[in-house]
Amino acid sequence: MSMDARKLYEGKAKIVLATDEPDRYLMVFKDTATAFDGKKKGLIQDKGFYNAQISARLFQVLQSQGIPTHFIKLVDERTMLVRALDIIPVEVVVRNIVAGSLSKRLGRPEGERLPSPVVEFYYKSDDLGDPMICADHAIAFGFATPDECIALRELALEVNSILRPYFLERGLELVDFKLEFGKPKGAEVPGAGAEKQYPARSRLILGDEISPDTCRLWDVGTGEKLDKDRFRRDLGKVEEAYAEVYRRVCQTA
Ligand code: UDP
């Protein structure tokens, strides 16, 4: 079957393809980049390769530490075989250091260290520009149940406590990042009373990607930005930043 016939979804940075197995998808990482709700568009040479490789490595690290992820294997340089998920429309952001929208919203200087990680929820909606929400909104509008909201926060903090030292050992400060979670596609929705037997924590699976597109990473020694902010803010040396993160994350033991 052609790639078009298998295409389920084409996003800003990835294409999702069906496979012969209904519970498996292919995720193809593209070189296209967007910022500011798609208003800025561009191409970052080999980004698809770097992000597929970096995400694969980070998913393996997380999986080995007990975080369930959708990652199964890389099938080529920029294509990942993953478990098919129903994505929860809540983007979970974890912040260790003030940057980006937090800096703007609360008037804090970029680089201010937070005393403990801050977790934020955003409603995943391109039309609305991913507005920030709180758990009560997620519950009220049926995006997630109360126990799922708790599990999203707990899992995101666990991911942070695994990835932060992993990056630090490679000379990278994990400033902030965004995660998306889902439930296995077509899985039974537990009825009343089933929540105890199937706690949200054991149903949720980490999906999407973890890459310099979705993380802010600063060089520990120089503070140099090695992430998508180089593209967003026209800082130059964009490809070089992705290549450097790839080198540090994937070419070290
Ligand atoms: N982020 C993302 N996708 C989004 C919004 C944010 O991957 O749709 C990531 C972003 O790369 C950063 C973190 O989440 O690592 C926090 O982003 P922020 O809220 O500061 O928004 P920004 O100013 O980057 O749009």
Q: Can you describe this structure?
A:
With 253 residues, the chain is α+β, with helices and mostly antiparallel strands. It has 2 domains: 7-85, Phosphorylase Kinase, domain 1 (2-Layer Sandwich); 86-237, ATP-grasp fold, B domain (D-amino Acid Aminotransferase, Chain A, domain 1). It is 33% helix and 30% strand. It has 9 helices and 15 strands. It has helices at residues 3-6, 47-64, 100-106, 135-140, 146-168, 194-197, 200-203, 229-232, 238-250; strands at 7-10, 14-18, 24-29, 32-35, 40-43, 71-76, 79-83, 85-87, 90-97, 113-123, 132-133, 172-179, 181-184, 205-206, 215-219. The chain has a 5-stranded antiparallel sheet with strand order 1-2-3-7-6. Helix 2 (47-64) runs parallel beside helix 9 (238-250). The radius of gyration is 18 Å and the shape is globular. The N and C termini lie far apart (38 Å). The mean pLDDT is 95. The structure holds uridine-5'-diphosphate (UDP). The site of uridine-5'-diphosphate (UDP) has 14 residues, from strand 9, helix 3, strand 12 and strand 15.
Secondary structure topology:
Layout: H1 3-6, E1 7-10, E2 14-18, E3 24-29, E4 32-35, E5 40-43, H2 47-64, E6 71-76, E7 79-83, E8 85-87, E9 90-97, H3 100-106, E10 113-123, E11 132-133, H4 135-140, H5 146-168, E12 172-179, E13 181-184, H6 194-197, H7 200-203, E14 205-206, E15 215-219, H8 229-232, H9 238-250
Antiparallel strand pairs: 1-2, 2-3, 3-7, 4-5, 6-7, 8-13, 9-10, 9-12, 10-11, 12-15, 13-14
Helix pairs in contact: 2-9
